[in-house]
Amino acid sequence: MNQTIDLILSHRSIRQFTAEPIAPQQLDAILAAAQSASTSSFLQVTSIVRVCEPEARQQLAMLAGNQPYVVQAAEFLVFCADYHRHTQIVPEAQTGYAEQLLIGAIDGALMAQNALLAAQSLGLGGVYIGGIRNHPVEVSELLGLPHQVIPLFGLCLGHPAQQPEQKPRLPRGLVVHQERYQHELDRDLLARYDQQIADYYQARSSNNKQQTWSGQIRAILGKESRPFMLGFLQSRGFNLK
């Protein structure tokens, strides 16, 4: 329909990069695009830590679950929810509310999506790294994050060294609800999607596996995920009330 929509619809996560650096003017454009994202109540509660030191990259890659592209990417950005800046301006600021945590997470995601889309428009690629939340205390110490700042996720950016197949998304009928939420899951539609995903995993050029989407969700949600997170958030001044 137009170049912007074509770009969005062509999204693929890139995990292999060439050694070519990202030009400074390109990085400036990516960061400007990130800062142009919408922000709730104009609070602007996100900070970005650009990590360049090889040793820090190695440590982050290990903390994130031994993901080598954290080291290989031309740029690695860590998006953080940040109320430390605000409490320096307003020492009596009322913070620690669950709503403020949501605002920080939403603002950070909007900024990061803008950044990735800007990068893709320049012929670059990237992948988000939620694995930095595997060890949030260690990541915070490594990046020198003060109280009321938490790492949300990382973003690898660079020149693609691969063109992976595009992973099919859920059918529209399982995602978009008309007027009111559709409580009953369309099992036939889900079964067709499960088969589509199984076919995709079998046919893709790397990391073939036998799995449906329902099976993947069962494996992820069938166990407790990062049970330490609530305690970490509260220790950093988030989600206290």
User: The biggest beta sheet, please?
Assistant: 4 strands, antiparallel
Order of helix and strand elements from N to C terminus: HHEHHEHHEHEHHH
Shape: globular
Q: How widely separated are the two ends?
A: 46 Å
The total count of strands amounts to 4
Helix content: 40-55%
**What structural class do helix, strand and pairing data support?**
alpha+beta
Mean pLDDT: 96
Number of helices: 10
- Strand order across the largest sheet: 1-2-4-3
Low-confidence stretches: none
In what range is the share of β-strand residues?
A: 5-15%
Q: Radius of gyration from the CA trace?
A: 19 Å
Protein name: Nitroreductase A
Organism: Aeromonas veronii
Keywords: Flavoprotein, FMN, NADP, Oxidoreductase
Pfam families: Nitroreductase
Please, could you describe this protein's structure?
With 241 residues, the protein is an alpha+beta fold. The chain is 43% helix and 12% strand. The protein has a 4-stranded antiparallel β-sheet with strand order 1-2-4-3, with helices on both faces. Helix 2 runs antiparallel to helix 6 (98-121). The longest helix has 24 residues, at 98-121. The chain is globular, with a radius of gyration of 19 Å. The termini are far apart. The model has no long low-confidence stretch (mean pLDDT 96).
